[in-house]
Write a structure and sequence with these properties.
Strand content of chain B: over 45%
Largest interface: A-B, 49 and 57 residues
Helix content of chain A: 25-40%
Oligomer: heterodimer
Distance between the termini of chain B: 15 Å
Low-confidence stretches of chain B: 153-171
Number of strands of chain B: 14
Radius of gyration of chain A: 19 Å
Strand content of chain A: 15-25%
Low-confidence stretches of chain A: none
Structural class of chain B: mainly beta
Order of helices and strands of chain B: EEEEEHEEEEHEHEEEE
Shape of chain B: globular
Largest sheet of chain A: 3 strands, antiparallel
Mean pLDDT of chain B: 80
Order of helices and strands of chain A: EEHHHEEHE
CATH topology of chain B: Cathepsin D, subunit A, domain 1
CATH class of chain B: Mainly Beta
Amino acid sequence: MPRKTSRRTMKDFGARPFDEKEWGMTREQLHEKLRRFGENTDWCYRHEERLRKKYPDQWVVVENGKVIMADADHAKILNMLRDRPDGIDASYIHFISRVKYNLIV
Amino acid sequence: MAVLRIPIMYDRSRPPYVKAQVRWDMTGASASVNLVVDTGAFDITLSMWDVQALEVARGRLESSQFPVSGIGGAADTFVMKGVSIAFVGSGIQDAVFRLGDVNVLDDSGLTSGRGLPLRIPSLLGRKFMEDHGFILHWDFARRIAYIDIAEPGQRHGWRLPTTSGPSRSTS
């Protein structure tokens, strides 16, 4: 027996199409940016134990499989990134705690 | 087939999260963030660390009248107005949601002076997922998880199961 359904549109859920002009990037650039951001995140998690020894209690910026900046001061990291032509772009900024902890949320 | 299927990054080494692009309408600045999928969190919340990447100074945010607390204690909470969030699917699809007020958690007071510095992540919480028709699929054994925003209807639009009757798990 078919399930009873109610027809809902994307608009009903408040979703809007991606407005390239509003966001200052094309849809392709959005997808590419998040793809690279995901890769940078993955790399950081895979190498976190090594990074913990090298950058304890510091913020690291990961790009293309390497740490390009590290500092204990988050604001300083952001300022250095903003000074670059590409800005923050798809960089992954992550705090490396000197002690590994499990997150309960 | 789902219209928009958002993959959840999920393995044992980290909390499950989705990637998103967050934009502050006031400045037009946007940044990529990871949102931990947390059905126990009452709503979507952004960490102050992620918000600062949007060129938002803490002084430009209003203090919230409703502090947020969790297992680790309470954090200073601010309200950010005019935030948009874009998700991309596993294919070429994407969707943008405009939010009214978003809670921003500042964990610097919570963690300062303690032996263990930590960072509260941004969270994809329950109310946001309820309001926007998110359907969570979770296969713990195989560590596969994803979000479907909606399913295609028979002729146009999308359809969702009605709330009457028992629901069946799809994972």
